[in-house]
Amino acid sequence: MVSQQERDIIRAEIRSRGEKLSAQDRENLIRPYLPDPSDLPQSRSRASTANSSSSHSRRQKNQKTRRTPIRTFVKSQIHHLTYALTHIIFGIIVRLLQAYHAVVERVFAIVYHHHRTPELIRKDVRGLKRLPQHLSILLTLRTEDDALAVLMDEVAELVAWSACAGISQLSIYEKTGALKSCIPALHQIITTKLASYYGSPSQQPNLQLFAPHHPIFGAHSNPRSEVPPLTLLLLSATDGRETMVDLTKTLAEMSQNGKLSPEDITPELVDAEISEITSQPLQPETESDRAPINIIKPEPDLLLIFGPYLKLDGYPPWQIRLTEMYCTGDRSHGMTGYGEAVEYQGFMRGLWHYAGAQMRFGR
Amino acid sequence: MAGSMHLSRLRKWFLASPPIELAINNLKELLVGALRQGPIPQHVAFVMDGNRRFARSHGIETVEGHNLGFEALARILEVCYKSGVKVVTIYAFSIENFKRSKFEVDALMDMAKVKLSQMAQHGDLLDRYGAKVRVLGRLDLLKPDVLAAVNRAVDLTSRNGDRVLNICFPYTSRDEITGAIRETVEDYSTPLSSNGAARTPFSESHIAHNIRAQTLGSKPQDLHSDSESSSAGSSAHDDDSVLRGERPHRVYESGSSFSSSTTLHHLQQDGQHKNGNHGNAPTDEKSAFMSPETISRQTLSDHMLTKGTPPLDMLVRTSAVERLSDFMLWQCHENTEIVFLDVLWPEFDLWHFLPVLLGWQRRISKSRQNPDAEGNFAGDSPESSEEDIDSSALRQGKLKAI
């Protein structure tokens, strides 16, 4: 909190690359902004008082306590009051914004409704400059009894919207990994959902479903499909740090057995290993089952977070280096409470936002 | 156009006039003091993005933009430390940035050198008030003169108080994670035998004999329970070493198949590790290592460059670029709140940061009142009495608001 005049002095000093002022000048310049040394609970000052005579130190202490009790009390009370006041005002603003966004959201929901028609969805994304090649979505499992069913239905809707929008690589992150345990059932639900969007099976996209360390499911369920195929990857928290730990364990063991020297561990090696498990599923054991599988791009282009504010919640860290992130509830720094529900207009807003973003590598 | 320029100049003059300036400064002090009363994130990270764009849009030199960015940094550091943030981490320079024009890289390096050496001139002042400065990143990529300035500043502030400023200098997160993995592997590849020279009350062959006997008999549950991660069922992976030879790139296909060694060997390591824990490492064993199964997430976290700092509570990136750009990937992917602001870094001030902090306080206070609610995550925990006052004040506030 510097005055304009001093700011000008400092700027001139910076321009001359720090040669204009001496160290003493600079200290004089900043001295008024430093706190009073006696305010600081410093071990050094305490030590120095301990060294002096005990009566002297007691007198000093008395002086100190006598000097500011009322002032500090008043000050802290003012701060408490300001804290309460700011939060009241902030709370009102947040509620107003919430109400406003809720209305806007409803209007959007009516104006942009997909009506389960692929043509309408395609029309919504037609004007966009770019679409993510690999879209990733973060969902949370709720706490109700039928949470898993709700989650699977949400996944099915998202798959259908992505397929209609022309996104062929989709990954869904859910922290607990509940989805991974019911891949066949999920495949069934998604197929039913796709049928309700596309109609007859020949017009449905071919769906491939897999998770790291799991074999691919539905590799060639519908060979006569005319629509481009869609690959869905299921991720959970164990694909994040846990996978890194597993890789480290393996590397440590190889190093212990003399198969690898620690200098061989480069970002490229780690990247190759980590990318592989999320980009290609395990091949089926028998040769006859082998089908052409489209490999997923390891780094997602866009991460959509259906939640009130942007929290990654254990999403695999290695892959999101350059991923754009969009939180459906994030238009007011995530302080409002809406945006948890998986809705079509939230999905669309994320895609639009992505198309308007300016991509620059290396910052 | 001309009108708006006059207006902005008038506004500037108005804001710079002494009484207004004093009032604004007092208001800021008051707000920062008020922020202190609530929960405050312990560790905040900033990506200082937008200096170049600010310079371009205001028609000044890129280097000037960076200088203004430094002023903004000083401003925001003051806010952070005064309101009680313990650790601030800033992304000053990415390894990728070396690809920029040589002129700009040199100017940035020069700026860093000047700032750091200026800091070194104020040794006693820093001692009294300063935060600890730490530089994270690939220091080996720096020029020798910059490196010397870095080392001097870090040395000088290493004994300072509990506030920390982490400067990520030539840094990328992937590089950091790789480094952590490499260091962990190095740690685990160092034979244990070097440390316990004289004390070997237990004979190693005797232990091996015992283990063999136990394996032949019942399954030795107690040995397994000692190791941290579950290695149960490792006997089923006897043939893993064979598989591994055929498909070396599928080593972790079944989650727990890292035991390329046979069961017995694995158990032997476990047993020795257990021994080592009791301070009785065998001496004459050449290939005695810590078991890789004891590597955990914490092990890796302890090898990150940010080791010893509280978990990252908040990450702020300015200039509306909504990517992490290889910053703090490991640290921010769990409970960190990530905030992207549509403001260029040189313009960043308390006014932009305040809503973010208030929102954070609001959420933390709410999740404390209702711990089961969604979005609950552990922030800092100050003294409970203070917290009670805060939450009751907040509750009153909300009642009034309703």
Tell me the number of strands of chain B: 6
In whole angstroms, the N-to-C terminal distance of chain B is 44 Å
The major β-sheet of chain B equals:
6 strands, parallel
CATH class wording of the largest domain in chain A: Alpha Beta
Classify the beta-strand content of chain B into a percent band.
Answer: 5-15%
EC number (chain A): 2.5.1.87
Protein name (chain A): ditrans,polycis-polyprenyl diphosphate synthase [(2E,6E)-farnesyldiphosphate specific]
Family (chain A): Belongs to the UPP synthase family.
Biased composition (Basic residues) (chain A): 56-69
Note down, in words, how this protein is organized:
Chain A is of the alpha/beta class and 363 residues long. Chain A has 2 domains: 22-64, no CATH class; 112-356, Decaprenyl diphosphate synthase-like (Undecaprenyl pyrophosphate synthetase), CATH 3.40.1180. Helices cover 47% and strands 8% of the residues of chain A. Chain A contains 11 helices and 6 strands. Chain A has helices spanning 4-15, 23-30, 43-51, 54-67, 69-111, 118-126, 147-165, 183-198, 241-256, 267-279, 344-356, and strands at residues 134-139, 169-174, 207-210, 230-235, 302-305, 324-327. In chain A, strands 3-4-2-1-5-6 form a 6-stranded parallel β-sheet, covered by helices on one side. In chain A, α6 packs across α7 and α7 packs across α8. Chain A is extended. The model of chain A is unreliable at 41-61, 285-289, 332-339 and 358-363 (pLDDT under 50). Chain B has a 6-stranded parallel β-sheet. Chain B is of the alpha/beta class and 402 residues long. The radius of gyration of chain B is 27 Å and the shape is globular. Chain B folds into 2 domains: 37-179 and 301-401, 3-Layer(aba) Sandwich (Undecaprenyl pyrophosphate synthetase), CATH 3.40.1180.10; 193-298, no CATH class. The model of chain B is unreliable at 219-285 and 373-402 (pLDDT under 50). Chain B has 16 helices and 6 strands. In chain B, α8 (173-189) crosses α13 (297-303).
